[in-house]
Design brief:
CATH topology of chain B: Rossmann fold
Strand order of the largest sheet of chain A: 5-9-4-1-2-3-10
Strand content of chain A: 25-35%
Radius of gyration of chain B: 21 Å
Number of strands of chain A: 16
Order of helices and strands of chain B: EEEHEHEHEHEEEEHEEEH
Number of helices of chain A: 8
Order of helices and strands of chain A: EHEHEHEHEEEEEEEEHEHEHEEH
Largest interface: A-B, 90 and 82 residues
Number of domains of chain A: 2
Strand order of the largest sheet of chain B: 9-8-7-10-6-1-4-5-11
Shape of chain B: globular
Oligomer: heterodimer
Radius of gyration of chain A: 20 Å
Distance between the termini of chain B: 58 Å
Largest sheet of chain B: 9 strands, mixed
Largest sheet of chain A: 7 strands, parallel
CATH superfamily of chain B: HUPs
Low-confidence stretches of chain A: none
CATH architecture of the largest domain in chain A: 3-Layer(aba) Sandwich
CATH class of chain B: Alpha Beta
CATH superfamily of the largest domain in chain A: HUPs
CATH architecture of chain B: 3-Layer(aba) Sandwich
Low-confidence stretches of chain B: none
CATH class of the largest domain in chain A: Alpha Beta
Bound molecules: flavin-adenine dinucleotide, adenosine monophosphate
Number of strands of chain B: 13
Distance between the termini of chain A: 52 Å
Number of helices of chain B: 6
Mean pLDDT of chain B: 96
Helix content of chain A: 10-25%
Strand content of chain B: 25-35%
Amino acid sequence: MAILIIAEHHHQHLGAETAKVVDAAQQIGGDIHVLVAGSNCQGAATEAAKLANVQKVLVADDTAYQAQLAENIAALVVELGRDYSHILTAATTSGKNFMPRVAAMLDVNQISDIISVESVDTYTRPIYAGNAIATVQTTDPIQVITVRSSAFEAVSQGDEVPIESIALVKDLGLSSFVGEELTKSERPELTAARVVISGGRGMQNAENFKLLEGIADRLNAAIGASRAAVDAGFVPNDMQVGQTGKIVAPDLYIAVGISGAIQHLAGMKDAKVIVAINKDEDAPIFQVADYGLVADLFSVLPELEQKL
Amino acid sequence: MKVLVPIKRVIDYNVKVRVKADQTDVDLANVKMAMNPFCEIAVEEAIRLKEAGHASEVVVVSIGPNTCQEQLRTGLALGADRAIHIISDEMPDALNAAKILQKIVEKEAPQLVILGKQSIDSDNNQTGQMLAALCGYPQGTFASKLVLEGDKAQVTREVDGGLQTLSLSLPAVVTTDLRLNEPRYATLPNIMKAKKKPLEALELGSLGVDIKASGLKQLKVTPPASREAGIKVSSVDELLEKLKNEAKVI
Ligand SMILES: Cc1cc2nc3c(=O)[nH]c(=O)nc-3n(C[C@H](O)[C@H](O)[C@H](O)COP(=O)(O)OP(=O)(O)OC[C@H]3O[C@@H](n4cnc5c(N)ncnc54)[C@H](O)[C@@H]3O)c2cc1C
Ligand SMILES: Nc1ncnc2c1ncn2[C@@H]1O[C@H](COP(=O)(O)O)[C@@H](O)[C@H]1O
């Protein structure tokens, strides 16, 4: 039995999620191989080769994999994946994009977003925005799985293992890359930060989100947002936390001017400590908050920044 | 060109589900049901393509028990031209749903299939990608913008780092994210008119799909670890004191 992990990466660097997917894989058990499919991606491959418990790294380095187009990546993974018992990747927007294609081409279902490994074929995963946890068992010959990285611990570094080049170029020509607008930030990544401070509709406008920045600087926090704040254009889409946005599990989550809809809670209720700042004492967010402060955020935020 | 929109009947997004006492599933008895919100966005996008003169016909399709016809009627009231109901007592798993939809794609030959990115019940986020794979089509998932130009669709996608824009050759599959559009409401006159629009019900058996028993078995469903409400603090000073000395997170 061997497990193939498709690495999340930015070509030169490995994404932080991959070390957590290795954790899920080692709980399943068996040899673990990591595939880095990218362009000029030796950097990511070298980092993958240093992850504990990985036996081998495969690198498919070609411009066809530059934009991580789902059609090309899936075709490659299907060809390599047939020899494995499990194929795993992180439930990032990239993993969610290509992995179901892999599953369909292998004629199996995908097990989406697992949060625990119960045995070699049984997993748990949240359904209904995390209001229920399903335990699912699969009898599929190849198990295709996406992993919620916030539910696993990154494995440590180990001895560097061999890197093998794969000369398989899958360029289906069905889609092509036009452009991207990536949000640049000096802050820690939302899904990896130890502290997250998020703003909601209560922030009123984009300008006011600056009130969170000083606090985030002092706490080395990432800044997140509710859907309402993103929809209103206060902040970019990649800051959305929730059922259909990013899932975070920091040590400390501070929700500011966020009511606490179930879809938002789905993305943050596994934080160790939750703080809510809201002027409405009946806001549902207080039902999950360890510490609630009923107050106007416009007076609280400057004071908080100053006292930190 | 024709646009096909698969829609799913799911629990209303405002309802907080409860797990059944015997842990076999969630309790859906007497719970309000609705069209999956991402499917509403898909229907809206298709109708806008028609209004803009890009699409000539919008067909909505749903797989499931007879109750799905309610959501198909909603789709018609919103502006779809025609509906197809594929009768299935059980909701199919994602792979089977994709296989069934593939047969409808073969029959209807749409240039564009727009699905929701995710059902809010199973939270699977797979059917659109699977359908694209089975049809050999390109996919533009998590779309926040869709522009048609000749035989291409330009799709802007919401990705973890920001936005990515792809060009897809048609026919293609697109799945919707929240910011693609704001769906309209069905007006009463349109709800009345929708009753006269064609709704075709097809037996699953008539499609010649090779439905296989799902490889996935739901062993049990449990409630999530519950989180007790904590305390209210009365000032910023008290909050900071608690975070430092009690929770020890700062
Ligand atoms: C299919 C679907 C998917 C969704 N996915 C997500 C998701 O992934 N993430 C997500 O967040 N939402 C999601 N939502 C939306 C969700 O249902 C809520 O609408 C959203 O979370 C509300 O955002 P909010 O709390 O910022 O706004 P509101 O609910 O409007 O709350 C604003 C809060 O700010 C408080 N406030 C206002 N002014 C002040 C002030 N001066 N000081 C202090 N407090 C103040 C108010 O008391 C209120 O509680 C989804 C919805 C659907 C249908
Ligand atoms: N039973 C179904 N009938 C019609 N469309 C469906 C069905 N199941 C899933 N879909 C479509 O696939 C999308 C994604 O669903 P899922 O993969 O289950 O998260 C939905 O938003 C629908 O557009």
